[in-house]
Amino acid sequence: MSICDSIKSLTPYQGGKPISELQRELGLNRVVKLASNENPLGLGQKTLEAMQIAVNEVDRYPDGNGFELKQAISKHLDVSTDSITLGNGSNDILELIARAYICNSDNEVIFSEYAFVVYPLVTQALGATAVVTKSKDFGHDLEAMLLAITDNTKLIFIANPNNPTGTLLDDDAVHAFLSRVPNSITVVLDQAYFEYLDCDDLAIGWLKEFDNLIITRTFSKAYGLAGLRVGYSISNNKTADYINRIRQPFNVNHIAQVAAVTSLQDQSHLVRSVIANKNGLKQLADGFDRLGLSYIPSAANFIAVKVDDAPKSYQQLLELGFIVRPVEMKNYLRVSIGTSREISDFLEALKAVL
Fold first, then answer.
1. Average model confidence (pLDDT) across the chain
2. Cβ–Cβ under 8 Å, residues 192 and 218
């Protein structure tokens, strides 16, 4: 049996440790998970009620074209339904885009050294060449990315806000970058954490200006639907048509579609979630300041904090019932925003292990 070399050397994506797993391992009654950038408020009541009704319809296949969800996104963002591609989480969309544009091993994909782990995964899985640019203050160095462009460049991934650093590029910088990228190269603007930003949605308007731009978003973060796996992209209609041609049939299940539609209609829950996140960011930052720890100011729903020995601190926190996320920056731990009590308890635990 012959397996592609790129697959043999691929390290699978590792999600945050599940609560149940840690409970089994250590026999803990209470576990606080601050590892996967989930919404501590969960989903809204209206969405929950809609899901409960939808459960009675799971004997039927979902709408493979996602008509109602596309209509809801179209109305929410004022975009054409033909510009939308639905995915089993935005990870699914990122892989579909890579499959659509990477044709052979000579193709190059550019992304920052501290960026979402799925970018290198899909690049390697498809046998393409990863071009990793050095970060600038833990974020994207757009000038370095421009200089890295060659005749073989096919894709550029930019996460804004960025994961795992939480850094944010301003709109003017991103727009200027797009204007300098050759139209033959596709730029993926990954905005999984966009809803947490207090700003105008300028990027959607850029789609009319840049045919090579694809924007990806998700319902997993601010909308609290991480377990349902539903994301989407917006692009020009032709690009969306090509991506949809390789999308798996029924890749977004019925309950996920119903929940996503309802969550878009329940903006009051989104507002509460954004406020809770803002308060949580401040609570964590203030706590790190009191502990004398340096951290990366974040525009997302997590903060990367520096400790003396990240692997040791991570393990000690696990033993106390707190799950955080080790990341590729040396001696940094990424801590997701939890409830006020969860953050308070975590800071006490962190103090104890330092």
1. 95
2. yes
Identify whether residues 140 and 242 lie together within a single domain: yes
CA-to-CA distance for 297 and 48, rounded, in angstroms? 33
Q: How far does CA 15 lie from the centroid of its chain?
A: 12
Long-range contacts of 70-79 (CB under 8 A, 24+ apart): 72/260, 72/261, 72/264, 72/265, 73/232, 73/234, 73/264, 76/264, 77/201, 77/204, 77/234, 78/204, 79/204, 79/207, 79/234
Instruction: Report the distance separating Cα 151 and Cα 153, nearest Å.
Output: 6
CA dist 128 → 155, 212, 248, 268 (Å): 10, 19, 22, 43
Ramachandran sector of residue 66 (left: φ over 0; alpha: ψ -120 to 50; beta: rest): left
Q: How confident is the model at residue 17 (pLDDT cuts 50, 70, 90)?
A: confident
The neighbouring-strand residues paired with 131 are 110
Let me know whether 184 and 38 are in one domain.
no
Question: What's the number of domains the chain is made of?
Answer: 2
The tokens describing 187, both together, are: 């730029």
Q: What is the pLDDT of residue 1?
A: 57
